[in-house]
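Now for our target.
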Amino acid sequence: MITKKSIVLLSSGLDSVVSLATAKEEYNITLALTFDYGQKAVEQEINSAKEISKIYNIEHKIIKLDWLNEISNSTLNRSGNIPNIYENNLDDKTITKKTAKSVWVPNRNGLFINIAGAIADAQGYTHIIIGANKEEGETFKDNSISFINAINNSLENSTQNNVQVIAPLIGYNKTEIVKKGLELNIPFNKIYSCYKGKNKHCGQCESCSRFKRALQANNKYDIIKEIFE
C-alpha cells in the first residue's frame, strides 16, 4: 500500500484554505506552495499563506515566476483596473465571462499543477490538492471536472510515481464551501481572497463578491465586518 504524501496549492483564498483543512489528514498534506507571478495581491497572499501554513503545521514554499508576469495581460498583473462585479450579477454568465477574461492569467492552473507535479515526482509526493470548485468552474474552465480529469491523464504519463490531483471541493458552490469551512473551524480572519491587494477585502471584485455572498448565506456578518472594507 502506497502511503499518501501531498502538496497543497495555497493561494490563501477561501477555496485553497478549505481544501487544505478538508484533505490534510486523509492525504497527509505536508507542503504548501504559493506562487508569485506579479499579481497585485501577492504580498497579502504570501503573508496569509505563511500564517495558514503555521496554523496547519506544514512547510511553506514560495515559487517565483517573473516570466509569467512578463507575458500576462491579465488585470491581476497589469496596471488596468480589475473589474468590479456586484452580487446580483454573479449568476449572469454574460457578465461573468467578460470579467473572467479580464483576470485570466495564461494557463495559470495548468502551470502551477505541473510545477507541483515536478516537485512531487522528485520528492515522492503522491497527490496535489487544489481548490477547484463547482461555482467557479462555470466560468473558469481550469476549475472544472473535465480539467481535473485531463490533467490527471497527463500526469500519469509525465510523472514516474503517477502523481494525481485532488479537488475536494469540486462539487461545492461558495455557500457550501463557507459552510464546510465553518464546520472545520478554519481561520477565516487569515484568508485573503481579494484580487486587488488592499489591506482588507475590497468587496467588489468577483472573488470578493462571491466570498461575501457565501458568508451572507451562512449568516456570518461578523466575519464580513472583520475582513471586508
Q: What stands out?
A: The first strand starts at residue 6 and ends at 9. The two ends are 49 Å apart (CA to CA). The mean pLDDT is 96. Residues 108-123 form the longest helix (16 residues).
